[in-house]
Amino acid sequence: MRFILAGVLALGLGVGSPATAKGDVSSFTLENGLEVVVVEDHRAPVVVHMLWYRAGAADEAPGVSGIAHFLEHLLFKKTKNFEAGELSRVVAENGGSDNAFTSQDYTAYFQRVAADRLGLMMEMEADRVRNLVLSEDDIATERDVILEERAQRTDSEPGALFREQMNAAAFLNHPYGIPVIGWRHEMENLSREDALAFYERFYAPNNAILVVAGDVKPDEVLELAKTYYGPLAPTPDLGARERVQEPPQLAERRLRFADPRVSQPYVLRTYQAPERDSGDQAEAAALVYLAEILGGNGATSVLGRALQFDEQIAVYAGAGYRSVSLDDTSFTLIVVPAPDVALKDAEAALDREISEFLEAGIDPEQFERVKFQIRADDVYAQDDVYARAERYGSALTSGLTVEDVQAWPDALQAVTAEDVMEAARALFDERKAVTGWLVPEDGEEM
Amino acid sequence: MRFILAGVLALGLGVGSPATAKGDVSSFTLENGLEVVVVEDHRAPVVVHMLWYRAGAADEAPGVSGIAHFLEHLLFKKTKNFEAGELSRVVAENGGSDNAFTSQDYTAYFQRVAADRLGLMMEMEADRVRNLVLSEDDIATERDVILEERAQRTDSEPGALFREQMNAAAFLNHPYGIPVIGWRHEMENLSREDALAFYERFYAPNNAILVVAGDVKPDEVLELAKTYYGPLAPTPDLGARERVQEPPQLAERRLRFADPRVSQPYVLRTYQAPERDSGDQAEAAALVYLAEILGGNGATSVLGRALQFDEQIAVYAGAGYRSVSLDDTSFTLIVVPAPDVALKDAEAALDREISEFLEAGIDPEQFERVKFQIRADDVYAQDDVYARAERYGSALTSGLTVEDVQAWPDALQAVTAEDVMEAARALFDERKAVTGWLVPEDGEEM
Q1: A149 part of the active site
Q2: From the Swiss-Prot or TrEMBL record, what is one GO molecular function term (chains A, B) (predicted)?
């Protein structure tokens, strides 16, 4: 009850006038709850129009894994007002491009077209928020498509199967352990009812974020959004977005995936890691540095220098961290051993380097280089209007706000070497880690 | 729709007369769907009265782990017709005992009393199928009790925590990976609404099995059951019992649990294993032999003889398999190393023995001894009226029928040595295994 009231109050405040505007980014909320973010960039007469839903694979009900992604495919079918495929055809006829993507935390649809076609895009996108018409034929046809997609991208790729099994081991309770594409045995049974249940529950203006970026004015976007998205009724009983959470991870896990198709074995390790939280982005910012310092730019990173150049144990060593996520995420280390180096020795070298790093701390010169690089990356990113739109959409569907996105560059620049070491000490807890080996069928025993 | 119709037809057939009777076991189905199994044993004027629900921890909704067990506790609170604790008090005053238990597949309530008190037991048990009255005080009080139960049985026992983390690693998708007691962070939030939702969904005469064993006649039991349980209305929309199933397990997993409280390290390995299926119990029967042959009776089993007596590597080596389970279960091997033997060496010895067993096959004399022992166990089990009742209740809540239970001793006796080897070859697939080490804080690295 409290939740619904708060929603109504928030809508009342946001109606019709910019709620936030910093530099060239503005945001509004329509009366029906649709959030709108406008990123101005007038260098070319082009606009990116994106609709993001706060609904991804991790919001699926148990047993219907893959339904979020399946529905993404189905949204290109017939609606009450348009024929199947008509949106994509109109976009192409207007010289634009369109696509869609599904992650654990969101599903998003976008078009890139000439700026004067924005109204048409909104008309067609708004239509499929509510008006999808699904036949059993659509289900049968498109289910074959996603099964084939799984066959090609996962089942025929030992590395993808390996990462899927790693992921399942990394999460004891949370749905991030289930693949976005879905488990095959569940995908085979996905039905029209399953698709409509997900659609009716999550596809609503008050569960979506509209991001428009490019050669547009905020007022024009607001007027168009009111015209096309405004008439959509909100879903009144939209519940909180609650997922099951992890219990304490108490035991170091190891996993060996053997497949005759593997030609290049490697070691992958993931640690449970915090994500960016709204109003509290400091630890995540420190982890971005940590990934860069340990495993960014091969030649100069801690792991790259030690394992690839000094010891020549690895042909590649890297680290990865995705800070934008609704719930706890993973920090990843990878070592691809040089020919004739055993995985065991490659892993031991990795462990040794991490230990030494925790003792020795960060080289001040490297830290300054990374800090400068991060700032430069941010400046360059401003040039890519699509990337800027994507940044707002992914953040706002992952529990962050426009303010968080705007505070992020400063949060990154505020990180100190000691912050990074503190985050590293908290992160490298073997009990929260999974170590995986990808090997050929007759490969090294763990 | 088909499901409901089939149910109605079955009820029509079963009303009022024994549907099945073999030896001293009879079974009926009341009009409201309650199944009744009667096991006659007139050696003592005692009766065991058990009510089993087809609802266990694996039937819980995501995020409310522990609710099945929590509800079991709450069933001893007030009902419309009796005070809190009254059932247990009446049982005790009549010189009997009572209790309840929850597993992944069932929740069961039982009393053992003088045979002439059966009607009274039924009156009180039938009352709490539908008439539970829960206050917020009950919730708060009893939630503290289950949290304390978890603290004592799990959190303060490194071996229990270890097995919990093993279990989470053993199942990639299926709820058997979630502990029956619940994850602490979810238990802390279990509410009255959660308990009532589980109660209203699963506690129904057509989702229960009444097992009465002891000094009773089937006709008397049927009459009493009709009197006391007959008036309970069935739940009309009781859905099928569907749980998410496992994807293919493709990667061998290893896990190391370190805890300063560990005084005796050991190696545990679990393999994904089939369970008894209705009408198809042969493979499970073979696995019962396999567990006995490999790790039964210490002195004469394959692992016991090799690891404890010949090589003196272990102080204990065993194997375990629980055949009764609704979905795929686990086959377990354990080696507790002798002092000064490293876990690595203990595990290597285990692997060597399994390999040798797969090559050498079963010693015919040992096979005959085990076969005889299994038959003897079955004969002795007939003496324990409580165990006989338990056997029917657990089987009927795990997808088996009265006929399956009665066919089981013959299925066991029909097993050949070649059946066992075939089951062993299918079972020992490292991709479907988790190997765990329990070690002290500064224990051996994996």
Answers
A1: no
A2: metal ion binding
Position A198 pLDDT exceeds 60: yes
Q: Nearest C-alpha of chain A: how many angstroms from B217?
A: 45
SS3 category, B302: helix
Give the minimum alpha-carbon distance from B441 to chain A in angstroms, rounded to a whole number: 11
- B285's CB contacts (< 8 A; 6+ apart) are B276, B323, B408, B411, B412, B414, B415, B419
Taking CB atoms and an 8 Å limit, are A251 and B436 in contact across chains?
yes
**Could you tell me if A62 lies within 8 Å of chain B, comparing CB atoms?**
yes
Classify the complex by whether its ipTM is higher than 0.90, answering yes or no: no
* Contact criterion met (CB below 8 Å) for B244 and B174: yes
Chain A contact for B253 (CB, 8 A cutoff) = yes
Secondary-structure class of domain A253-439 per CATH = alpha beta
Residue of A31, A35, A60, A72 marked active site: A72
pLDDT tens across A374-425, in order?
Answer: 998 888 778 788 999 999 999 999 999 999 999 999 999 999 999 999 999 9
* pLDDT cut 70: percent of chain A above it: 94
Helix (H) or strand (E) holding B283: helix B282-295
- Report the alpha-carbon distance of residue A72 to residue A99 in Å, rounded: 10
Task: Please give the average per-residue pLDDT across A296-304, as a whole number.
Answer: 82
Contact A177 B177 (CB under 8 A): no
- B344 lies within 8 A of chain A by CB: no
CB contact under 8 A, B172 and A173: no
Average pLDDT over chain A, rounded to an integer: 92
Q: Is B446 on the interface with A (CB under 8 A)?
A: yes
Domain limits, chain A:
6-228, 253-439
C-alpha A352, offset from chain centre: 31
Amino acid residing at B71: L
Is A254 within 8 Å of B257 when comparing Cβ atoms? Answer: no
Which parts of chain B register pLDDT below 50?
Answer: 1-19
Reply yes or no on whether the pLDDT at A21 is more than 70: no
